[in-house]
Amino acid sequence: MEDEADEKSKELIKLLKAAASANRDLLFCYVGVKQWEDFAESFEVTKKTKLPKMIVWDGNEDYFSVVGSESIDEEDQGSQITRFLQGYREGSVIQKQISGPSLIGYINSLIGIRTVYIIVFVVAVIMLIQTINKEEPLRVGTRDQVDHASSSTSQAESREVHRSGDKED
């Protein structure tokens, strides 16, 4: 059903309770798509699905849809529930599996305000990294002078070694 709080849904809930008391071997429950959207999507319920939709779920990964009784019209809902139960007991069902999360479903779930927050966060982090990594202006000649001073010292030392070697001859 679309919404558990809706007046039409409350009438259907009363009919389901009456059917449950007459069929004690089955467990009846209902789910409002507005309240439990992710759960309802597992049973192929989308915005285009005609609601209320009836299925038989074994509690695991399989569920059954009764041929010709997938949904309930607003008129004479009690007899439609009875036809659904008869079809289930006679075995005119289609076995389906609960659909798990898919890539397309994941992408669709990202679209919205969360996507905007993620994009703003990523842009802010990139701007922060660029600000931190900006190079400071180079000091002209500071490094060159240090390199030149150390190389002149080593040249002077090598000259002294050569001179002392000359004196020995």
TrEMBL record:
The chain crosses the membrane at residues 103-129. Gene3D superfamilies: Glutaredoxin (3.40.30.10). Residues 157-169 have a biased composition (Basic and acidic residues). It comes from the Eukaryota. Residues 141-169 are annotated as: Disordered. Keywords: Membrane, Transmembrane, Transmembrane helix. This is Thioredoxin domain-containing protein. The lineage of its organism: Eukaryota, Viridiplantae, Streptophyta, Embryophyta, Tracheophyta.
